[in-house]
């Protein structure tokens, strides 16, 4: 034990928290730099192996945005759109920039290809990304408030150029707003001003109303025994999730929305999830396997339970955020690389709330750094062109981190219970 403590002390002197965060950020930037160099050496293929569903397909970039605008303007829930109404309302606003004559009947599947060539649509995408950049840079100020200007620039830039953010931008997916609203929620969470905390609850409700699964972060309010705040947040969330249905057909739209959710099954080629990661380890391919699907749900349940087992100290807040972020990979079986975007908040919280780094913490930092780095690793195998090595590495890093994190929390919990018994005796 003394040897371990000495090693920890030495490591903390050589690699204090601020320096370790900067190193992690620089590694992410270095990975992006290597990615660009490789992309220049091998034009076309490098971008394809990380960002495109099929490496040779150069026609689908930004189509989550274009298709969403198109479907929204034709009546989203009549065409099995699975986005909540607040998303559709946002896309309806952007779609209103286009002339009405643009929307030629009849509706066609993946009709975004019909409108993406218009200048108005491309300008709408520019605004969509620009608003996110402004919100992202602004929301980074509080987590980095004790850092110098150059350090703020390096860290913010590294996270902006991380794999999940780049992938979200490539898709034109509205998850970037769900993420940045959640980032604002955590920035406001422990603020001394009551109105700022309330603003945070509103942003959590907005985040959940956009992508649904961030609602899981509301469990922290219950974990912290903020029951009244949790109830208010639920009210905000219900309002944001239900009221916008008025613009798309009211009660009929609600029924059609849930019907579409029940029918939805995403492609099984490129998903970030526990089940796909384990499936590739065991079978060498991705896909839906009932046992692994159930296993993913069980793993997610264990991660959520650990949130309530974790000691509620400020330095453990990042663990709770990481546990909930990772649990999504068991609950939502198959999503693109943008699903790992919420681990950025855990990464920020880790460095903001920790003053002393334990040896095991270096494993966590390594796993989070790997998950965020755009590693140009190429295709996993010729038979699995849709499933690149970068996706596998993210899945496996998430699995390793989940196992280590749960083991760490369980050991500390048992030690705490043992001390309590000894004190009582």
* Overall mean confidence score, pLDDT: 86
- Listing every helix as H and every strand as E from the N terminus to the C terminus, the arrangement reads HHHHHHHHHHHHHHHHHHHH
Summed up, the helix count is: 20
Shape, per Cα inertia axes: globular
Count the domains: 2
Per DSSP E runs of 2 or more residues, the count of β-strands stands at: 0
Q: What class would the helix/strand composition place it in? A: mainly alpha
Largest sheet: none
Report the uncertain regions.
Answer: 379-385
Spatial separation of the terminal alpha carbons: 25 Å
The residue fraction in helices comes out at 55-70%
Strand content: under 5%
> What is the radius of gyration computed over CA atoms, rounded to a whole number of angstroms?
22 Å
What does this structure look like?
The protein is an all-alpha fold. The protein has 2 domains: 1-43 and 265-425, no CATH class; 61-139 and 174-264, no CATH class. It contains 20 helices and no strands. The longest helix is centred in the last third of the chain and has 36 residues, at 389-424. The two termini are 25 Å apart.
Key structural traits:
425 residues; mainly alpha; 2 domains; 20 helices; globular
Offer a quick outline of the entry.
The protein is an all-alpha fold and 425 residues long. It has helices spanning 2-14, 17-41, 45-51, 63-74, 85-95, 112-115, 119-139, 149-160, 163-171, 175-189, 194-211, 219-223, 227-242, 251-263, 274-283, 290-309, 317-331, 343-353, 359-372, 389-424.
């Amino acid at each position: 034990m003394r040897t371990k403590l000495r090693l920890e002390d030495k490591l903390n002197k050589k690699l204090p928290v601020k320096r370790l965060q900067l190193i992690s950020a620089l590694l992410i930037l270095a990975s992006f730099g290597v990615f660009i160099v490789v992309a220049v050496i091998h034009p076309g293929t490098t971008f394809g192996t990380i960002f495109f569903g099929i490496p040779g397909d150069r026609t689908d970039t930004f189509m989550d945005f274009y298709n969403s605008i198109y479907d929204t303007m034709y009546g989203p829930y009549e065409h099995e759109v699975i986005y909540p109404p607040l998303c559709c309302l946002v896309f309806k606003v952007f779609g209103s920039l286009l002339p009405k004559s643009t929307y030629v009947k009849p509706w066609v599947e993946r009709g975004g290809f019909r409108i993406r060539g218009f200048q108005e649509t491309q300008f709408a995408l520019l605004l969509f990304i620009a608003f996110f950049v402004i919100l992202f840079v602004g929301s980074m100020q509080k987590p980095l408030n004790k850092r110098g200007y150059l350090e703020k620039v390096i860290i913010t830039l590294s996270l902006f150029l991380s794999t999940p953010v780049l992938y979200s931008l490539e898709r034109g997916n509205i998850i970037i707003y769900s993420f940045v609203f959640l980032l604002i929620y955590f920035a406001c969470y422990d603020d001394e001003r009551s109105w700022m905390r309330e603003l945070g609850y509103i942003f959590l409700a907005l985040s959940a109303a956009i992508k649904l699964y961030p609602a899981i972060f509301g469990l922290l309010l219950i974990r912290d025994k903020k029951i009244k705040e949790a109830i208010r947040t639920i009210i905000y969330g219900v309002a944001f999730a239900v009221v916008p249905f008025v613009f798309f057909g009211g009660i009929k739209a609600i029924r059609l929305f849930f019907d579409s959710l029940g029918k939805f099954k995403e492609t099984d080629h490129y998903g970030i999830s526990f089940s796909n990661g384990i499936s590739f380890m065991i079978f060498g391919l991705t896909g839906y396997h009932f046992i692994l699907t159930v296993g993913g749900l069980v793993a997610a349940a264990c991660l959520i339970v650990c949130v309530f087992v974790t000691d509620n100290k400020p330095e453990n807040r990042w663990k709770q955020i990481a546990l909930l972020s990772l649990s999504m990979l068991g609950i939502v079986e198959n999503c693109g690389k943008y699903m790992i975007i919420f681990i950025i908040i855990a990464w920020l919280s880790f460095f903001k709330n920790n003053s002393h780094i334990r040896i095991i913490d270096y494993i966590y930092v390594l796993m989070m750094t790997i998950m965020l780095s755009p590693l140009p690793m190429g295709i996993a195998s010729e038979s699995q062109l849709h499933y690149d090595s970068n996706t596998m590495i993210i899945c496996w890093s998430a699995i390793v981190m989940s196992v280590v994190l749960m083991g760490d929390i369980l050991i500390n919990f048992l030690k705490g219970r043992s001390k309590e018994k000894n004190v009582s005796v």
